[in-house]
## 1
Amino acid sequence: QVQLQESGPGLVKPSQTLSLTCSVSGGSISSGGYYWSWIRQLPGKGLEWIGYIYYSGSTNYNPSLKSRVSMSVDTSMNQFSLKLNYVTAADTAVYFCARGGGYDVIDYWGQGTLVTVSS
Amino acid sequence: EVVVTQSPGTLSLSPGETATLSCRVSQSVSSSYLAWYQQKPGQAPRLLIYGASSRAAGIPDRFSGSGSGTDFTLTISRLEPEDFAVYYCQQCGHSPPTFGQGTKVEIK
């Protein structure tokens, strides 16, 4: 059973960088075959796919966030990470890491972590 | 990007009744790339249906999906108390993958 767990600061100041890490257990990122995604849920609203990374390091980002997003993967730690630059209050959301993305459905999700952007 | 529109926004039903949720996408998508998720308060979404009509592992057969092209449906027969939640439709046939705004199934 694959499990994912997000970690990172719950509070980020405006204009700074949001950084989150997802730790994966029960499956190896380096075994390939899956994309690893970040998805966010704005307060009281729907879901927005941020982007995915493959074990090789290749990425695909949502064009709406592409200029501010970067993702990386650490296969030795079985983790992948998200950085979102120049955040504003509009980036306040619950951030989920997940397995899947691109043309694949999301079949495993982390529990989500609330990130608030505020001074 | 492809817009996913779900209706109704809220469905008020009693346990034992049947829920019919609609999902419309702005561009035709292969059925292979249409999924439904269930989300309960404070939890992550859970995959229910993939490929428009295939149930994910462990999903009861009272959940069924259908449709093609631009119109898809999730049907929940014989609603159980644990089925009252928000349901999201997602298309992943066009990049970026997009989700609908959700349909809340609430107890009447």
## 2
Amino acid sequence: KNEVEQSPQNLTAQEGEFITINCSYSVGISALHWLQQHPGGGIVSLFMLSSGKKKHGRLIATINIQEKHSSLHITASHPRDSAVYICAVRNIGGGADGLTFGKGTHLIIQP
Amino acid sequence: EAQVTQNPRYLITVTGKKLTVTCSQNMNHEYMSWYRQDPGLGLRQIYYSMNVEVTDKGDVPEGYKVSRKEKRNFPLILESPSPNQTSLYFCASSPGIQGYVLSFGQGTRLTVV
């Protein structure tokens, strides 16, 4: 079973700062997902990637398959970015393997 | 609007009283899944379904049942709820299992007393 580790667990930053959240996993994967969970509880998918880099607005996600590592970056952070960010990986292999989730990074952006 | 709808959003029940949490999606997705989220443990998969009449266990299936009689619906059944099933539950769907982002429901906060 894949082990997914996120760092940091908690992060408080000032508005405008560049934010990096890291995700490492132990076993080869077919895809990695980044999710955002707001204080109200709802979960939104931000990115799914299997290689390289993706960008959406101020959010950038990268993955290094060889190093088994992904990062989520937020540029020009804003208080509305305050949320829990969750990394999830889907294992390679036959059958319908489920996702393995990290425990999340709790991000607070202060005005 | 494309969405995954869970009901109820909040539920307090007593030990042993059977309950069903409904999940419905209007996107014609083949893959549907249930997760529970607990503090310090993150999201864990309970059951998933690749298509109609095809379901399989996730990581924590004990105490739960599911069915997939129609493509759009994937109810989660707790035949005899216990306090350790108090949790936040999410249903999710996607067009397939590989290569797609998940769409999540709003969550159901269940308390079993």
